[in-house]
Design a protein that fits this description.
The protein is α/β, with parallel strands linked by helices. It has helices spanning 6-16, 36-47, 60-68, 70-76, 90-103, 111-116, 149-172, and strands at 2-3, 23-29, 56-58, 106-109, 123-129, 140-142. The protein has a six-stranded parallel sheet with strand order 1-3-4-2-5-6, with helices on both faces. It starts with a strand and ends with a helix.
Length: 173
């Protein structure tokens, strides 16, 4: 599911208060296939029992709208913008993305999402194409030209589910 409206954001936000989880960050160079984030979220809503159907992909326009609205930033617990930066600057957008990722069950994409998640351990990172040399490590790297766009959803979703199960198992040992 791709959230591109404020009602979709509110649905995710209110549902997310009950269930927390990891998030996924997608990076693609030169760009990600169209609808990949929404496809991954839809796949996980179907196959991730612990997700409670709350997996949501956030459009860049929606993230920008959230950053521009002080009430929505407060709902997410986003810190106030830096005095030198507007709320919709790269710095402000990273803060919104970081807060969304912290709540979990979110599929985020792009370089700002990679930067915002660099210090977080509960973020699954998948790269398609060239992997950035600096920044965080990626759990999965794929050459998208070798797969159909439809297959990428399940490959990323299944690899995330394996990562999450293994991560949970390691925490219990």
């Amino acid at each position: 599911m791709l959230a591109s409206t404020l009602p979709a954001f509110h649905h995710w936000l209110l549902g997310g208060n009950r269930v927390r989880g990891a998030a996924i960050v997608l990076f693609g160079f030169p760009e990600l296939p169209t609808a990949l984030a929404g496809g991954v979220a839809g796949y996980l809503n179907e196959y991730h029992d612990d997700g409670a159907g709350l997996w949501t992909a956030f459009s860049p326009q929606l993230i920008h709208s959230i950053a521009a609205n002080p009430a929505l930033r407060i709902l997410l617990g986003v810190p106030e913008p830096c005095p030198q930066c507007p709320a919709t600057s790269s710095c402000g957008l990273r803060k919104v993305i970081s807060s969304i990722a912290r709540r979990g069950h979110a599929v985020l994409e792009g370089p700002l999402a990679v930067e915002a998640s660099a210090e977080k351990n509960d973020i699954f990172r998948a790269a398609l194409g060239v992997i950035p040399e600096d920044g965080p490590l990626f759990h999965l790297a794929l050459r998208p030209e070798l797969f159909s766009d439809r297959a990428l959803h399940s490959i990323i979703g299944d690899t995330f589910l394996e990562w999450e199960a293994t991560r949970g198992f390691a925490d219990t040992v």
